[in-house]
Amino acid sequence: MRHCPLSRAELPSDTERLARYLIGKTIVHEAPQGRMSGRIVETEAYVVGDAAAHSFRGLTPRNRSLFLERGHAYVYFIYGNWYSLNVSGEREGVGAGVLLRALEPLEGVELMQALRPKAEIHRLASGPGCLATALAIDRSLDGVDLCAPGPLWLAGPATRTGSISVGVSTRIGLTKEAHRLLRFYLHESPSVSGPRRLRS
Q1: Confidence label for 56 from pLDDT (cuts 50, 70 and 90)
Q2: Relative to the CA of 183, which of 21, 41, 85, 116 has its CA 20 to 30 Å away?
Q3: CA distance linking residue 182 with residue 90, whole number of Å
Q4: Residue 175 and residue 51: Cα distance in Å, rounded?
Q5: Using CA atoms, how far apart are residues 196 and 75, in angstroms rounded to an integer?
Q6: Closest Cα to residue 103, out of 134, 72, 81?
Q7: Do 25 and 157 touch, CB atoms closer than 8 A?
Q8: Domain boundaries, the chain
Q9: Cα distances (angstroms) measured from residue 118 to each of 2, 82, 115, 130, 167
């Protein structure tokens, strides 16, 4: 499958707009075991001044990648169980990002199944922890430029499509600023995570 890499100039310079823009785009991991890719079908924006964002209290060694220019990977370990993949969303020095919550697998499905052996295909990368596990994402990819040649990169839609229907809802699993309409998802995708009332 041929993918067209996204340039940084194509990425909106606003985190909320970037979260919506990424719906329908592709993430590609050129892993040692082979290429894995998926269509992004669910995102959440964590914007400037957002109390739920890892960047809210300022720059730290852990969150420094959130403060890189838009289009860099921020990978963190959460709940002692799994990694999550985010895309930095603002100009350099401003902390904000987009959490990739779910993918529809495109390439390397057998590799993903080996990493998530009990999951159905449409649930292989449904949810941020599942997504990172299925794509073999870990902290070694933190800070990677997703708009440059390398092991992890962003690409345009895998197939030519017309307009897509993007849903909007509150974010999932938060205790702070949970009311904000900063979650975006592809309508009717079986890979979207969360309760049915937030993905219909």
Answers
A1: confident
A2: 116
A3: 16
A4: 10
A5: 27
A6: 134
A7: yes
A8: 8-198
A9: 29, 16, 9, 11, 28
Listed residue (37, 45, 26) closest to 89, CA to CA: 45
How far apart CA 45 and CA 60 sit, in angstroms, is 20
For 140-183, how does the pLDDT look when each residue is reduced to its tens digit (9 = 90+)?
Answer: 999 999 999 999 999 999 876 667 899 999 999 888 888 899 99
Q: Write down the pTM of the prediction.
A: 0.95
**Which amino acid does the sequence have at 197?**
R
Alpha helix stretches (DSSP H) within 74-198: 109-115, 128-134
**8-198, CATH topology level:** 3-methyladenine DNA Glycosylase; Chain A (3.10.300)
46 residue type, one letter: Y
CB 90 within 8 A of CB 15: yes
Please give the backbone phi and psi of residue 132, each rounded to the nearest 5 degrees, phi first. -65, -40
DSSP 8-class letter at 8: G
